[in-house]
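2024-03-11 09:14:02 DEBUG pipeline.ingest accepted 1 chain
2024-03-11 09:14:02 DEBUG pipeline.ingest length=567
2024-03-11 09:14:03 DEBUG pipeline.predict start
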Amino acid sequence: TISMTEGLTFAFEIKVRDTTYITPFYTAPATITFDPFNTAPVATDVSVSAQMNTATALTLNATDAENDALTYTYTQPANGTLSGTAPHLTYTSTSGFAGTDSFTFTADDGIATSNQATVSVTVLANPFIISVNATDGTFILPLKTGLTYDFTASYDGATTTHTTDANLTLTFPSGPGIYDVAISGTFPAINFNNDKNGDKAKLLDIKQWGNGAWETMENAFNGCTNLQISATDTPNLSNVTNMQSTFKGCKALTSLNATNWDVSNVTTMKWTFHSAGPGSLDISTWDTSSVETFYRTFANSRFALVGYENWDLSSATTLYGMFQGYRGMTSIDVSNWKTTNKLEGLHRVFAGSSLTEVNGLENLNVTNVIWIDRLVNEDFVFPTATYDTILTAWANQITEPSPGHPWLTTASRYTPFSEAAAARQHLIGMHWTITDAGTVAGIHPFTTTSITSPIRISGWNDVATNTLTATVNGASQAMTVWEDSLWYTDVTLNPTQRLPFTVSFNGTAVKTGELTWVPTLINTTSSQAVTIRKGSTLLIGSAVHTGALLEIDTDGDGVYDLSGTPT
């Protein structure tokens, strides 16, 4: 083996001896092949900047002393992908990634492989861009105390870097006017807070949300009465838990496409869209499963909601005033809302709103509800069938007296002698207060103290609009009843008779049993007020015994004008 340095010369002669023959050397021509000396390629580190979610071209850097053709081997980056033919590649970051990414490569000239080099890619987040009306040539960018900031603001040809949580005042070199402000870097929150910390009326538009991660949206644009949002991208809300008062008072918002917003970690939506709108608000893809409070979320809002129907409210403890004073729609359907026994507050949910139709309340979980006062307007009327369904569904959930004071107030009527009527009484027995318009057609519940004659009709009125009949011993007869009066059949009964009877309301049987003869007299030691109406039969129904003296004071002067022993 002979080694020599490339570029030098070396003279030599080769003779071959064949020991078989006497002739000492073989002088025939011989072929000698030289393997040229090779220098391995050299790879060099590369650094590039890339925009988030944007393809960026880059070139791998390697040299070879012999200028041989090179082939490349490279790894894939951790937070992106590479495409193309080396050395000319295209880098695309993983969606939503911002920061530093890297990969390694080597070059080969067919003989030797280079050293390993590194390509470093700095992925820049898209800036947060707002439009402001600097009426006095300045704009106060309101920040949130206690958070970490490290950002650059670009505006009117100027650039300012800011690293504290103190509000930043931008002074525009060109003076008063409308300007775009681009904010890049660590910018976790903006905090107008109804102008306690910023120029709320100067904010005109959010043109781009950018890719920076927000940490909180509490009071972010609260009170920004001139705000529009033309941005078509999506804010990074993956770390946000608080959306209290985010768009409260944003009365100029004519539309807000909030589809694909990640609100899965948000726990409070208190006042989020209070007094915001008008326009359309698309929230169809929102994951609200972590939200615990919807306190006045849409109160006084004028947004027409799109896609609210299938919200997951499984973590919600209160819907207090959620739609109180709401003016965006006249009809709402919550049939598919997912609620659990965590729900405690239904106070004023729809009170004072423009809603004339509220559907699906029967599907809410009211097992542990404490407050229901003014769920709807006091003059709100559910269709009777709907109100019946609500009463029945809720009563089926309540097995223990409420620890609070659920108070359901509505102008709705329920069906008498029905499951709903029984459900209503059950809820009242479970410490609920129900104030409604009574039964349909203005009547009140039909009840009997027993299945014997007489049958007590209590709390009954407006019978002229209804048809009440009785069938006694197979014979049908009309009934004339008055409020708090008692009804007797016109058949003759004696102490040994037991006659079957049926009482029907509007053609539907509501009471059946047997009539027997039962004398009912007032006790001589008790006194009670009575109401006697023309055509009715009076029976005093307190504790009685046969042969008691009945005395009646007809004019209230304390003198009993009528007396006798009833039979």
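2024-03-11 09:14:41 DEBUG pipeline.report The chain is about 5% helix and 30% strand.
2024-03-11 09:14:41 DEBUG pipeline.predict end
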